[in-house]
Structure formats: structure tokens, C-alpha cells
Amino acid sequence: MPIDTTVYDFVEEMPVAMLSRCIKNAPANWTIDSIRLCGQYGLLSLVSGNIRYPEEARQKEIQGTVVVRFVVEPNGKIGRATVIRDIGGGCGDEALRVLRALDEAGLSWQPGMKDKKAVRVSQTLPIRFKLEEAKPYYLSVKGDTIYHTFDSEARFRGGIDSLAHFIQQRLNYPKNMRDSCKTGIVEMALFIRKDGKVEVDNQLNFNHLGLDFEWESLQLAKKTNGFWTPAQYQGQAVNSMLPLRAVFKSDAARCKTSNANFDKAVVLGAEAIGLMDAGKLPEAIDKLNQALLLDPFNTEYLYYRGTAFMQQNERDKACADYNSVKKMLGTTWFEGIRKLLCGY
Predict the structure, then answer these.
(1) CA 30 – CA 144 distance, rounded (Å)
(2) CATH no., domain 137-251
């Protein structure tokens, strides 16, 4: 039987964007039309949330709606994306970039059905470009004004080398855990207030080290009080946020092998990220596999490997890694993406 290569405009069952909240977690009383409408709104929200307003369009104050057309293939992927209505200033290219990026990130479709068979179906999507004055700050959940744009960022006294030396000298390995040989990283979001005082906004315990290590990380952050020059914006000191990493390695003699494996994994992880940036995904995955053999509970490496798998359209492998992070940490720093692509 010949393969149907026709591109249909309408079929009995039109395609649906497979967003977890619409497909897997839909209320029991939802009809297929309810699911389809949820998918349409969810897709528009997802696209608009990832738009980078083109600088040319911003300078020329171009606003309006770009309309793109694409084909949902029988395998749930999209292709033949084109702009059928453009407003100029690079907006059409940006609309295509976002659509293709979502496809590459693993967003799939329930294909259109004709005579109970999956077929190619043409779809159109309007994407709104609206200029809004970008603010140099955002409000935290606690109501603090935190700047992400500044003339000069917060600076540790003596610079980055001085900060590295400070961490090395002032970070304490938990005494009761010294013989455990646990190695790993706790990353903190350091809230540096405009008066120079610091607070820890949240922590990421990448290696699931435990509460003793998290407590020592907090103590390290507190010790930096008085060593920071706050960020500056238009001649004024402002609140800002910076990452601070505490690296734990025991100095016990029996822990030399664990420390060496950790150091090797760090190098492999850094090499993997470079390969991912260069688009060399199989090589990056191989490096991350090696890193995880040395440091199997490193959720950061699992996240990067999952992302590489997702970029290769290996969704099941990606979600296995993403869900492993969820299982180990209880939540993830990329929870929105995980829920979207893998469900709850």
C-alpha cells in the first residue's frame, strides 16, 4: 500500500500539542476538544515565553502578529515551518527559531488522524510581538527588588581569586562526616543586599550530601558578610543575586581515591558542557557517562545528560535522567521543563 504523503488542512482528528498538563493530567470530564484547546493555549504561552525580541524590531518599534505555518508529521514531529505573515525586523525569523527550538527540545504532537491513520496535517500559529519596556529588576517572592541589569555587579573584596581562597580557607567539612569520604557541591543563590549584607535565597545540593553539608554551606555564606561591594545601577547601590559554590572533599587519608574520582568527574563534566555547546551531543553524552561512573549521584551531570538526550530526541532516556534528579532531590531546579516534557 503506498504511503500517503498528502498534507491535509483538515482531518477527522486534528493534531494536539502533547503538553503534560493537557494530556496526562487532564480532568476526567474533559473532552478531546477541551484537551485540544488546552494544548493550543499552552503552546501559545510556551512560545511567547521563549521569544527574544529582535533588537532591530525593538529599535524600529515594530509590533504585531507573525503567522507561521508548519506540518505535523505522523511521528508527532513538525516540519516545513514557514512564515506566511511577517512584520519585519527579524520577528519572522525569531518565531521560526522558537518553534524549532521547542521541537528540538522534545515537544511532540499527537498527530492528525484520517480514517484512523496518522497523516500529515498543516497547522498555523499566530505569534504576538508586543514591545514592553524592560525593567532592570524583578520582584522576589518575598517582595525584594532584585536587579539583573547593573553598571557593575557585586564584587568580593580582592576579586574572584580572593573569593576562591576565602572558600578554600573558611569552608569546613562536617567533622562527624569526615570518614564518609563524601564529595560534592552545594550551590547557593547568594542575595547581596545594597548595604553589602548577604543572605542565602536557596540551595542546590547537587550530590545529595545531606543536611550537615548544607548547614556548613550556610555558615560559609554568612562568613562572607562584610566582604562584598554591592552591585551598582545608575550610581546607586542595588540588591542583586550571585551563585556561590561550596565544594566538599574530606582531608581524611582514606578519602584520596574518592577525591581523585570527584576531580576527574569535574573535568569530564566541563568537557561535556563544551561539547554540548559545540553541538557534539554523542561525544558529550560519552563524557557524562564517564563522569557519572565516577560520581553517580551528581544530579547536575544527570541534568546535562538528560538535556543532551532530549536534544537528540531520545525523550525516554532524557526523562529517565530528569526523573532521577527529581527522585534524589525531591524537586528540581528545572521543574517547569521536567513537568512539561515528562509529566508529574
Answers:
(1) 40
(2) 3.30.2420.10
